[in-house]
Amino acid sequence: MYLAALLIGAQGCAREDDAAAYDRAVRALAERVSGTPENTALADLVNARIARARAAPGELAAGMRERLDALQLEPLRIPGLFYRTHAWSGADLGRVEVWLGRPVTLVETGEVDTVERNAAAVRVAVRAAAQGGRRVVLFSASKGSADVQEALAGDPSLGRDVALWVDLVGLLEGTPLTDPGTSAAERAAIGLPEDTATSMSRAVRRAAPAADPRRFPAGTRAVHVAGFPARDAISNAARAGFERLRPLGPNDGYLMLESFLRVPGRVLVVPGVDHYLRTADLEPTVVALVSVLLDELALRAPRSAPSDGPPDTGSQ
Fold it and tell me: What is the pTM assigned to this prediction?
């Protein structure tokens, strides 16, 4: 009995050591991603403006609406998987309308369609929204971001039409959850057709032409919002995927966090949240982010539109 107790205790200590090592790896990777000059500068600007986003979100949203109109920008939502069937996930990005305080067109992609077919739908929607000299601001989430990347890389001329892309936890390098070798039972648990599961697998997405940064249009500014959760921050909804991916390294329950070292554009790290981005701070964080990004676009415009706050401050 004494020996059994010692063995159980040793196993418990090993699990605790493993958890601590995993969390250290997450923190180290988050520091690598957020520590580049571009990402550090972006985080500083956003953090300086978050106080305003918390205290007066309506005021900041009004300024963003004025800026969108002045710059002739049309926002679009590109949803993720099961955005109608599993509406609880927020994959339809309906909260973007709350953040901006205005309707935002939802691009009707196939709920469980392949990356390539949905990318074609994104291209059609962008061209339609860009009529009359307008440019587009894309908001996407999860697999919807893979659809966007495929659309833009597949037709770099869209860089003339897409001024800004705000990606939330995008599967830009796919997910190992649907890599070749995944069992039929595991694939069935996700509920995807085989061609869709293959199209969003890490094996396919990392080898796709869209993964080549040289194909991403230079005229489009891309910013990625990435959750970096420790083990105890994983929600029940993301737990199964997290446990399957944990032996491969830091992940958010669906994607490998290392992918954010290679995405086009800048990354804003949000610590302590998984793929579902369930945090009360998400709204002020994204509102502050979009406000900063619109200021940047205004500075590049031939004639600057009225500002909703100077880009290097915002905490007043």
Answer: 0.89
